[in-house]
Design goal:
The chain has helices at 6-13, 17-24, 33-45, 52-59, 81-96, 109-118, 134-140, 154-160, 173-186, 206-220, 236-241, 254-266, 300-315; strands spanning 64-70, 100-106, 123-127, 145-148, 166-171, 192-196, 230-232, 248-251, 276-281, 294-297, 323-327, 330-332. By secondary structure, it is an alpha/beta fold. It has three domains: 6-50, no CATH class; 64-171 and 300-327, Response regulator (Rossmann fold), CATH 3.40.50; 173-298 and 331-343, Rossmann fold, CATH 3.40.50.2300. It has a six-stranded parallel β-sheet with strand order 2-1-3-4-5-11, sandwiched between helices. The chain has a six-stranded mixed β-sheet with strand order 7-6-8-9-10-12, sandwiched between helices. α1 (6-13) crosses α3. The protein is elongated and about 75 Å long. The termini are far apart.
């Protein structure tokens, strides 16, 4: 069966080809709701799929967004719950606005150069750029871009404030960690450990901000900061050996917290009565853990949705300067944290 055309859709709907084109491109402010519904029904009936190449030539827009995950590893783990929920938020909002998303794991500058050479992108959303690599990466991206969870050195921040084609969407990581520490202290915990992925305390990053708030939160309440209570993602055995010295553990992601709880349970070493645990993210499985994980909700799906909306504003020229959006975390109390008084 021959593929239906915009002209045939217009004739069937009794409207102009321009009106059909406007509905396809979501430019419906001058089209009645009745006509929109009729045209969309005809499109669905005939399974019409727009020719994106043709639309790109006419509109100088590809409707294609590049979602770049920057990592040092060749195989980025998209199964991480935070990553998958972030991607879901971006994909849902982009689809609603008629855009397509190309997801790519980037390990070098050459990856970005190759992508821009071979694909016509309207813009990019970039996740995971290191502070040290940021300026070099930003200089080679030639389209509007939104960076997610990206921290900069102060001098780089001043440079970016003057740019018009980029925005930043970050969690307020200091506030989120501060909230977690305050809650543990309210529950009478004073011997609090810190478990995270690898980070450098002197370089701005998500983990660096959470560690800083942890350290300053303890100092605020006159609780000693102890280097021996700082653990990396590969030091589960070290934490197990220190369980009798701590009453609580702040873990910088729910995924990491779940892995650690499983590690202890496999060794019959876990009990909420001996170790309270608080995480970050509130991904879908957090409330299903046993016990349910107390965590700081960071809304990864909402973060993705906001990032796309900011990018679309940049693409349409609706933003005149770089934007900085910070999303506060929200404490979600479940059963993995108890007060000291409950233990005796």
């Amino acid at each position: 069966m021959a593929r239906i055309t915009i002209k045939q859709i217009a004739e069937e709907a009794g409207v102009s080809m321009t009106t059909v084109s406007n509905v396809l491109n979501k430019k419906t402010h001058r089209v009645s709701e009745e006509k929109i519904q009729l045209i969309e029904e005809i499109i669905e009936k005939h399974h019409y799929i727009p020719n994106m190449n043709a639309r790109s030539l006419v509109n100088s827009s590809s409707k294609l967004i590049g979602l770049l995950y920057y990592s040092k590893e060749n195989d980025f783990i998209f199964s991480d719950p935070f990553t998958s929920e972030l991607l879901a938020g971006i994909e849902k909002e982009s689809k609603r606005n008629g855009y397509f998303v190309l997801v790519h794991n980037v390990t070098s500058i050459n990856d970005i150069l190759t992508l821009q050479k071979n694909w016509n992108f309207d813009g990019f959303i970039v996740v995971g750029v290191s502070t040290e690599s940021f300026i070099e990466i930003d200089n080679i991206i030639k389209k509007p871009v939104v960076y997610i969870d990206t921290y900069l050195f102060e001098h780089d921040q001043k440079i970016m404030e003057k740019k018009r084609q980029c925005s930043f969407v970050n969690t307020n990581d200091y506030q989120a960690s501060e909230t977690a520490v305050e809650f543990l202290i309210e529950c009478s915990h004073k011997k609090i450990g810190f478990l995270s992925f690898d980070f450098e305390p002197s370089i701005p990053s998500v983990i660096q901000q959470r560690h800083l708030a942890y350290k300053e939160g303890l100092e605020k309440h006159h609780i000693p900061y102890r280097e021996e209570f700082i653990f990396g993602e590969h030091e589960f055995d070290k934490i197990q050996n220190a369980l009798n010295q701590m009453t609580a553990l702040l873990v910088t992601s729910d995924h990491l917290a779940a892995k650690f709880v499983k590690y202890l349970k496999n060794r019959n070493s876990y009990s909420v009565e001996t170790l309270s645990i608080i995480g970050f993210d509130d991904v879908s499985f957090s409330e299903l853990m046993d016990p349910g994980l107390t965590t700081i909700r960071l809304e990864p799906s909402e973060k993705g949705r906001i990032a796309f909306k900011e990018l679309r504003k940049l693409i349409l020229g609706e933003l005149t300067k770089s934007q900085q959006i910070k999303m506060d975390g929200k404490l979600i109390v479940r059963q993995s944290v108890i007060t000291i008084s409950q233990k005796f």
